[in-house]
Amino acid sequence: MKNLLVVLGTKGQYVKMAPVLLEMDRRGIPYVLAHANQHPRITREISVSFGLRPPDMELLSLHRDIATKSEALMWLGGNLLRVLVGTFDRGGEKLHLRDFLARDALVVIHGDAPPALLSLILAERFRLRIAHVEAGERTYDLLQPFPEEIIRKLVDRHADLLFAGSPRAIENLRKERVRGEVIDIGMNTVLDAVRLALQNQRCKTPYKHGEYSLVYLHRFELLNSRDRLSFVVDLLEKELASERLVLTLHESTRRSLQRAGLLGRLVALRNLDILPLRPYHEFIHLLANARFLVTDGGGPQQESNILGVPCLVLRESVEQPDYSNVRISGFDLLKAREFLSRPDRLRIEEGIGRFDHIQPSKTVVDHLQKAL
Fold this sequence. Notes:
Blueprint: E1 2-8, H1 11-27, E2 32-35, H2 40-50, E3 57-58, H3 69-85, E4 87-90, E5 93-96, H4 97-100, E6 101-110, H5 114-125, E7 129-133, H6 148-158, E8 161-164, H7 167-176, E9 181-184, H8 190-198, E10 213-216, H9 220-223, H10 226-239, E11 245-249, H11 251-259, H12 263-267, E12 272-276, H13 280-288, E13 293-295, H14 298-307, E14 311-313, E15 326-328, H15 333-341, H16 360-371
Parallel strand pairs: 1-2, 1-6, 2-3, 6-7, 7-8, 8-9, 10-11, 10-13, 11-12, 13-14, 14-15
Antiparallel strand pairs: 4-5
Helix pairs in contact: 1-2, 1-8, 1-16, 3-5, 5-6, 8-13
């Protein structure tokens, strides 16, 4: 019987938890790793690039990375019954939760993606303790982002251990008077993931430092709005016409652009290189060498701050609005133009070196050991 269950299913969860899993492996701490399979293809690549061991068991998979609302609902509905019953798959064999997990076990939940909601339901159903990594992140707008804002508030409300990576997150949890223990880990565990990626010297990019800008867009609230997609295409086509651009294209983003009749306009841009989604280590090297980043993702925003790369965020609300390298424009053209007029002034020259004293993943594992 194991005392620790870690459930992961998305790219962001695998990236941010990879250094925590590696630290537990280094210390010889036994745990069960369950794959929720929201992003089965991307997460396999991430697992290999970080040198993680394969999952011990899995939830239902659609055998592709979920890219549409209908696929997300199919995946969520199929797995909701499984977590309520407490069954996982292992090599075609069905395993019940009580066959491998102790009754006082701790479930480690990361972030706010739908697998976090499934993990919460599982833990509550079987009265297991909960540790929440990346606790306390808030926009205080239930629709921005949706459903993530709702999920993280629910998980924080029920968690026994809450690992918070910023003063803002800690203050949010104190204001909400959560019942669990709030633990300051100094920074998001993505810091350690970026460190590991930069150490991989095999990652080579065909671009020189500072000769291009990077574009990374994938959130549902963008992809499900033709007006917002049109804004993005106009921005790249008109406002960034003189800039060499590299776009790493999610399959979900490609499909949405195609449905909206906008993909052809992007393909026609001579200053734009469209790349398939890159392995995480390669993406970090691309970001580290970029002049600036245009994104709608919370993860890339954090990574840009760690690396000191100027960043324009196309979202109305974000969890960390006070990064000095970041400007949040939403879909306001004047705000976007203000950033694009002088992005270099937002670069943080010290880069990742200014965080050398912070070890968030080790702090998480220290407290997990105590809890076990």
